[in-house]
TrEMBL record, chain A:
Superkingdom of origin organism: Eukaryota
Record-linked InterPro entries: CHP3, EF-hand-dom_pair, EF_Hand_1_Ca_BS, EF_hand_dom
PROSITE patterns cross-referenced by the UniProt entry: EF_HAND_1 (PS00018), EF_HAND_2 (PS50222)
Keyword Acetylation in record: no
Pfam families membership: EF-hand_1
Membrane topology according to the record: Lipid-anchor
Gene3D superfamilies xrefs: EF-hand
Protein name (record): Calcineurin B homologous protein 3
All residue ranges annotated as the EF-hand domain in the record: 112-147
Lineage: Eukaryota, Metazoa, Chordata, Craniata, Vertebrata
GO cellular-component term (any): lamellipodium
From TrEMBL, chain B:
Name used for this protein in its record: Sodium/hydrogen exchanger
Family membership: Belongs to the monovalent cation:proton antiporter 1 (CPA1) transporter (TC 2.A.36) family.
Biological process terms in GO annotation: regulation of intracellular pH; sodium ion import across plasma membrane
Regions crossing the membrane: 102-119, 131-147, 159-181, 193-215, 227-247, 259-285, 317-337, 358-375, 381-407, 419-439, 451-471
Ion transport among keywords: yes
Membrane association type: Multi-pass membrane protein
UniProt keyword terms in alphabetical order: Antiport, Cell membrane, Coiled coil, Glycoprotein, Ion transport, Membrane, Phosphoprotein, Signal, Sodium, Sodium transport, Transmembrane, Transmembrane helix, Transport
UniProt feature, compositional bias: Basic and acidic residues: 693-703, 710-722
Signal peptide (from-to): 1-29
């Protein structure tokens, strides 16, 4: 898991390329950006992210930055946060946003969908207990509305509550009045966003891509 | 038995009405055919007669003067005919299931034209002026106003590619091939030169929005394909306009020059961008005007219509693309106007647009049928057959070629099935006919017109009829029943921001970045100017939520019961979701109290803005629930009014305060009262969207405090109240009052 040298040759990339599915050119571009963000150091810290000007306007900036430092997103079954990340982790996190390639089977598509939804889930589930509680969901909605005016705290609560209610109804169906819905588990989350077509929506274009396919 | 009998008698009645109407109109047509020749003399005569005979004859109690009302009378008769036809097709379900409505209408037109001709009269032809100035704009405005912006902007590159490149390819291919065909001696068409062929190509190549709408609406195909074909049909207008005028000029001068070609290219950009700009200007002016229309609500819809129509006409003055101007105007105007106008005006706009476009579309197809019978035809087998063949071939080739190129840049690629539907959905329609009609009168014109009509018939009948079974056969994805989900909306927004953030981190300015910039610009500058009052800062998530709340409230009105949450058939209620430790209210509320609470809720919730997401005419027909709800709502509101003697007919932004002692509703009314000059707007989570900016971040500790709310004469709520109020508001938000904690009867209600 070492950080890459400052002038990596192609063989180092091949490892990453295989792991994440990016092409060599794309990894090269990402590496340049990594170096730019980290001021040519080996690792990135949270402060480096805070320096990006455009991010300042983003209402969920904090959560995005946290996602980069979240071990759950490194595909290594880890948990908890780290203080700094290397290039490999950077690319792995970015790989969650790759578009699905045209020749994917249904199974692969399902797998990609789970991966992306897992990423989203991790972003919401900040205390890593496997469920998104009402509190966490409220926080999400509050953040979303945080840039848009000052009087929305109550509305945010209401919206989050209504959303939780919806999830509970969809996933659980019938509950006795004194039962308690703990929170959104990953399975419920999957069910909730099943029609969302996340594998094509949660993607961005990575530069310098081959115009044929993204996978090798 | 009975229904069949009923339907057959209806059919008979319909047929009789039809014949009656036709003969009536024909009768008058013949009447004035005669009177036309001697109309002046007759008029003079009658006048002089009247004068001279005034002395001799008695005053005529009943006299007959048809000339007077002839034009509006005949127009009304035609429109009535169109409407009866539309009604008839829906009453008889079996036929309309197989044959699309447009085909039936053309058929009726043929019949009517045939009848008129059989009686020796000259049936009216679809006048190009009438078509372009009166029949086409409502349809385009309807389409543009309700254009779903998200799929449109996401696929704009593809759409433009198909519209511009696809049409250009079609024009030159068809024009060139037809010229080659004309060279064949057997066709006896040697007099048709290259330029005329190219002109013909430019007329026949454009996919027609009217036909596409008519056919695609009925097959409920998935959103992507719908927006691709439909968007293409709208945007290719610019190309058509430019090429048409270009070749017409050239044909006139019988020569193509290089400068001419270059000017043509420049003209294309001027026409399209100019058209869009005209539309944008009118749209902005319209949005700005709507900011002030709260002073006279009744005329609000007229502003929408007139500004759009003026945009269209203004573009037509300069030979810019009227269709693009109209679309741009509708698209720009809509978000701001919808935030400003009252709910009733909004409904009016929606229904009028659907109504007009429906009538227009019916009339267009009927007239197409009639004109077919009417027009002088020059039938040339070779020309017509080859035209049809080349239209199909060029469309297929064009789509395949362009898709191969476009797929390199798309994230969601277009599959072969998609390509087939796009190619097959390239219907021609009345625009082609009208353009052809505008040609100069010479022998070629009739030849062209015949071919154009044949192509139109072929595409509408053959392709229109077979596309539905083909869609079933190929198992193309249908439009999914989108149940509105607040979770999906939250995540849509979340994703938008997330992707923008990732793009920023990656360091490249992708399309999320620009979209975000545009949104921010819109929010900070534009909305402030164009939207009245507080609505200008309302975020989209809240509008969406309000709308959902309204729906739930309305459904509760319908169901009428206390505890049922209508959209979800489950017993999950908010109590299950709330944090465990929070005070579970143990006291049940009395039934009558609950009733009153619910009524007040309803009254407050019903003034919410509703955001329209549908753009299909047919979807509108299923919107009956909305009418019932509005009716029920209105009735109940009236009843409540009577009981509590408040005035509510003017869009009430205040005084929905019933004289009930419920202190916890106070904040709602506070919210209402401050914006008294605005339209009633979504403060539906009024309970939630308190004007409490000063509220500190309260920890969500369940607090068993029972401090009476009497302290709430100010908007600010003390901390411990937050949880109770919180829970209460939550339940209010969900239109499920739930048991209320601590009914502090002693706390007075302060209006």
């Amino acid at each position: 898991m070492g950080a890459l040298q400052s002038s990596p040759g192609r063989p180092e990339y091949s490892d990453l390329a295989e792991k994440t599915g990016f092409s060599f050119e794309q990894i090269g571009v990402l590496h340049k950006r990594f170096k730019q963000l980290s001021h040519n150091e080996e690792t990135l810290q949270r402060d480096n992210f805070n320096e990006i000007d455009d991010l300042a306007f983003n209402p969920i900036r904090a959560q995005i930055i946290e996602a980069f430092f979240d071990r759950r997103n490194f595909h290594q079954n880890g948990a908890g946060k780290v203080q700094e990340i290397g290039f490999e982790e950077f690319v792995v996190v970015m790989s969650h946003f790759r578009p699905p390639s045209a020749d994917m089977t249904e199974e692969q598509r399902g797998k990609t969908r789970r991966e992306k939804l897992r990423f989203l889930f991790n972003m919401h589930d900040t205390d890593n207990d496997g469920t998104i509680t009402l509190e966490e969901y409220r926080h999400v909605v509050e953040e979303l509305l945080s840039r848009s005016g000052t009087l929305e705290k109550e509305t945010a609560k209401c919206i989050a509550d209504a959303a939780m209610l919806e999830v509970a109804s969809i996933s659980v169906g019938h509950m006795e009045p004194d039962e308690f819905y703990e929170g959104i588990t990953f399975e419920h989350f999957l069910k909730l966003l099943e029609r969302f077509e996340i594998e094509s929506r949660m993607t961005i274009r990575f530069l310098n891509m081959d115009t044929t396919t993204l996978c090798k | 038995m009975a229904p069949i009998q009923r339907s057959s008698t209806l059919r008979l009645t319909g047929l009789l009405c039809l014949l009656f109407l036709v003969f009536f109109s024909h009768g008058f047509a013949s009447h004035d055919a005669v009177s036309e020749k001697s109309s002046e003399t007759i008029q003079e005569d009658s006048r002089s007669q009247a004068n001279s005979t005034a002395h001799k004859k008695t005053f005529p109690v009943l006299s007959f003067n048809y000339e007077h009302v002839r034009t509006p009378f005949e127009i009304s008769l035609w429109i009535l005919l169109a409407l009866f036809m539309k009604l008839g097709f829906h009453i008889i379900p079996t036929v309309s299931h197989i044959v699309p409505e447009s085909c039936l209408l053309i058929f009726v037109g043929l019949l009517v034209g045939g009848i008129i001709k059989a009686t020796g009269e000259q049936p009216p032809v679809l006048d190009s002026n009438l078509f372009f100035l009166y029949l086409l704009p409502p349809i385009i405005l309807d389409a543009g106003y309700f254009l779903p912006m998200r799929p449109f902007t996401e696929n704009i590159g593809t759409i433009l590619m198909f519209a511009v490149m696809g049409t250009l390819w079609n024009v030159f291919f068809i024009g060139g091939m037809m010229y080659a065909v004309c060279q064949i001696d057997a066709a006896k068409l040697a007099h048709v030169d290259l330029l005329s062929c190219l002109l013909f190509g430019s007329i026949i190549s454009a996919v027609d929005p009217v036909s596409v709408l008519a056919v695609f609406e009925e097959i409920h195909i998935n959103e992507l394909l719908h927006i691709l074909v439909f968007g293409e049909s709208l945007l290719n207008d610019a190309v058509t306009v430019v090429l048409y005028h270009l070749f017409k000029e050239f044909a006139h001068e019988q020569a193509i020059t290089v400068t001419g070609a270059v000017l043509g290219v420049i003209s294309f950009f001027v026409v399209s961008l100019g058209g869009v700009m005209v539309g944008v200007i009118y749209g902005i002016v319209g949005a700005f005007t709507s900011r002030f229309t709260s002073y006279s609500r009744v005329i609000e819809p007229l502003f929408v219509f007139l500004y759009s129509y003026m945009a269209y006409l203004s573009a037509e003055i300069f030979h810019l693309s009227g269709i693009m101007s109209l679309i741009a105007c509708g698209v720009i105007m809509r978000p701001y106007v919808e935030a400003n106008i009252s709910h009733k005006s909004y409904t009016t706009v929606k229904y009028f647009l659907k109504m007009w476009s429906s009538v227009s579309d019916t009339l267009i197809f009927i007239f197409l049928g009639v004109s077919t019978v009417a027009g002088p035809h020059t039938w040339n087998w070779i020309f017509v057959i080859f035209t049809v063949i080349f239209c199909l071939v060029s469309r297929v080739l064009g789509v395949i070629g362009l898709t191969a190129f476009i797929n390199k840049f798309r994230i969601v690629k277009l599959t072969k099935k998609d390509q087939f539907i796009i190619a097959y959905g390239g219907l021609r329609g009345a625009i082609a006919f009208s353009l052809g009609f505008l040609l100069n009168n010479n022998e070629i014109k009739n030849l062209f017109l015949t071919a154009i009509i044949t192509v139109i018939f072929f595409t509408v009948f053959v392709q229109g009829m077979t596309i539905r079974p083909l869609v079933e056969l190929l198992a193309v994805k249908k439009k999914k029943e989108s149940k509105e989900s607040i979770n999906e909306e939250i995540h849509t927004q979340f994703l938008d921001h997330l992707l923008t953030g990732i793009e920023d981190i990656c360091g490249h300015y992708g399309h999320h970045h620009w979209k975000d910039k545009l949104n921010r610009f819109n929010k900070t500058y534009v909305k402030r100017w164009l939207i009245a009052g507080e609505r200008s800062t309302e975020p989209q998530l809240i509008s969406f939520y309000n709308k959902m709340e309204l729906k739930q409230a309305m459904m509760m009105v319908e169901s009428g019961s206390a505890a049922k949450l209508p959209t979800i058939v489950s017993t999950v209620s908010i109590r299950n979701v709330q944090a465990k430790g929070s005070p579970k209210p143990s006291r049940a509320i009395s039934k009558s109290r609950e009733e009153e609470i619910r009524r007040v809720l309803r009254a407050n919730l019903q003034n919410t803005r509703q955001r329209l997401r549908s753009y299909s005419r047919y979807e509108l027909l299923n919107d009956a629930l909305e009418d019932d709800i509005s009716e029920a709502r209105f009735r109940k509101q009236k009843e409540m009014e009577r009981r509590m003697s408040h005035y509510l007919t003017v869009p009430a932004n205040r005084q929905e305060t019933p004289p009930v002692r419920k202190v916890f509703f106070q904040p709602e009314h506070k919210v209402y009262t401050y914006d008294d000059s605005e339209s009633p707007r979504g403060r539906a989570s009024p309970s939630c969207a308190d004007d409490v900016s000063e509220l500190k971040e309260t920890p969500e500790k369940p607090d068993q405090s029972s401090t009476p709310r009497a302290n709430r004469d100010a908007e600010l709520k003390p901390k411990e109240q937050d949880d109770q109020g919180d829970q209460l508001k939550v339940s209010r938000c969900l239109s499920d009052p739930g048991p209320n904690p601590e009914d502090d009867e002693d706390s007075t209600f302060l209006p």
